[in-house]
Amino acid sequence: MDDFRLRVFVEVAHQLSFTKAAQELFVSQPAVTKHIQELENLFRVQLFERSGGRITLTEAGKLFLARAESILDGYRRLKLEMNLLTDSFDGELRLGASTTIAQYLLPEVMARYIARYPDVKLSLMTGNSRQVEEALSDRRIDLGLVEGCSHQPGLKYMRFADDELVLVTGARNAAAREEISLEELLSLPLVLRETGSGTLEVIEQALAAHHVRLSQLRILLQMGTTEGIKSFLAGSDAYAIVSVVAVARELAEGRLRVVEVNGLELKREFAFVHPQGGGHELAEHFMRFASLVPLYG
Amino acid sequence: MDDFRLRVFVEVAHQLSFTKAAQELFVSQPAVTKHIQELENLFRVQLFERSGGRITLTEAGKLFLARAESILDGYRRLKLEMNLLTDSFDGELRLGASTTIAQYLLPEVMARYIARYPDVKLSLMTGNSRQVEEALSDRRIDLGLVEGCSHQPGLKYMRFADDELVLVTGARNAAAREEISLEELLSLPLVLRETGSGTLEVIEQALAAHHVRLSQLRILLQMGTTEGIKSFLAGSDAYAIVSVVAVARELAEGRLRVVEVNGLELKREFAFVHPQGGGHELAEHFMRFASLVPLYG
DNA sequence: TAAAAATACTCCATAGGTATTTTAT
DNA sequence: ATAAAATACCTATGGAGTATTTTTA
To answer: How far apart are CA B87 and CA B82, in angstroms?
Structure first.
């Protein structure tokens, strides 16, 4: 429940187009026109300047926008608080996440979420951080999960979990030691993710801190997916640097082993991303929920 | 414009009665019932406990009330800001004021107000401070103006103007001096307001500070209205203690003269009173306006 | 049994739609 | 000429009413 006329106004103010706002809100363009006219008549104020192909907000319109958004925010809080009270949620929540999160963290969280809240329709889009942020800006998703915080304007970031990349090898690799030095790492046969992946960027930066370039590594192979890398390791004595969340199960079941590289820190952060102005009410709830789910099993 | 369903809920929450809320909002009782049911269905929350002849707010209802009031406040601000922008106001504003203010200050302010805002319907109820505060609590008026601040719970006070009581006498009173001592005051023939009036209370308190009781004064006569006192002075050499605003014209035109009483301070404050939770939007505007009108002009 | 809340039904104002015209680049 | 906003007109839903029943002190 909220005030649809205010929502129409806010949408038009953001889109600066009656037609686009109509599409966004799934109503006809004349309906939007009428709502805006009604508001303008009601308050005897012109909210939009129609001269020139583009429409613009008048001064009154800007004031109106601020107030209207605060009222709509009030409705969102109301709904959220009532839902928290009864612990019942419904609706649709479109998530977007970068590969590692989408593959290894979110499925667990999403499964628990829909188990508890079966009336919520979840969907998940996968892409790299930039694509996720774009999807958010385009309103194709409601909540994003990315590696690191690029601090895009108009988006708000909130820490979700810490991640660490580790050097692993197959459990049957007889030559593997428990820990090695950075120099020794340079001579090991490595399988890494492809150029351009967030994972590889973290490795590159961590090495740079020790004045080592990627090209100095003995890279056997680069693969597009972490699953592929894991399969490869099963039948080889090579090593790989992967997110610890991606190999949690294999480590627990003893199929892979961690090899400590002294002095090399490969940490990063996973973070929620969502539009500044507080968008979807379920997004907020999902974030709360996710931060309570025990990860890594 | 606002969300009528929320207003219905808030009214019911305050009245704790569907029927009374309906009367207050000028709608039928079934309409109120339906609105509340709709809200309860929408959020799947029980807002009122119906067991026992009286209805009461549930915990959820209390939370809902807080949020709903904040949303409605948002609408009020929106309206007020838009109106300020166009400097156009309409609607009804019911004022209540204690005698002196109602007779000597408000007429001027009200006249200017309706001259500038002809679409506002003003009305004025007169009574003593207690009656004005009662009328506010009963929602029979929207804004009050009283002498002094008794700081009733649930009401908010805002300074409006300073007032001073002065000793006056007819201009033709040959015996009148420009200033006298407190002792000399005791021997003067006085005309005062009736027992129980705010004016007399101020005099009583000020004298008490000098350990003088009302009974020590030479009270010729007590009258119910300041106008009566003024008429009496016109044909007599008596003195009176009245609010300076009540005799501003007579002093300016030389029909009455002030006699200074050394060491006697008869000051008080006029204040606006209005309900805590921000009620009528016009009330706020009228207060702003009134504080800009040059008084005693 | 009396007062308040809930239900049943009727009616109409308005939000929304489609088709079309106007406006502005 | 084209794309967007405004207008005209129609429809149907939901909000409001009256009359009535149910509830509970």
So the answer is: 8
CATH of the domain at B36: 1.10.10.10
**Strand C reaches within 7 A of the B18 CB:** yes
- Let me know whether B112 and B17 are in one domain: no
What is the predicted pLDDT for the residue at B297? 43
Q: What is the mean pLDDT of residues A241-265?
A: 92
Per the structure block, which two tokens stand in for A10? 């806010």
Residues A120-129: pLDDT tens digits? 999 999 988 8
Structure letter (DSSP) for residue B103: I
CATH label of the domain that carries residue B246: 3.40.190.290
Structure letter (DSSP) for residue B216: G
Domain that holds residue A77: 4-85
Task: List bases in chain C with any atom under 7 Å of a protein Cβ.
Answer: 4-8, 15-19, 24-25
Task: Record the pTM.
Answer: 0.74
Interface test with A, best of B42, B45, B65, B88 (most A CBs within 10 A): B45
The whole-number Å distance from B3's CA to C5's C1' is 23
A74 and A171 belong to one structural domain: no
Answer for B38: CB within 7 Å of strand D: yes
- Contact state of A86 with B43 under an 8 Å Cβ cutoff: yes
A63:B85 CB<8 A: yes
Does residue A233 contact residue A250 with C-beta atoms inside 8 Å?
no
3-class secondary-structure state, position A27? coil
What is the C-alpha separation between B91 and B93, in angstroms, rounded?
A: 7
Q: How many CB atoms lie within 10 A of CB B28?
A: 12
- Please tell me whether any atom of strand C lies within 7 Å of the Cβ of B34: yes
Burial class (CB in 10 A: 0-12, 13-18, 19+), A142: buried
Report residue B33 as tokens. Answer: 């019932």
Smallest CA–C1' distance to D15, residue: B31
Q: Which residue approaches C4 most closely, CA to C1'?
A: B19
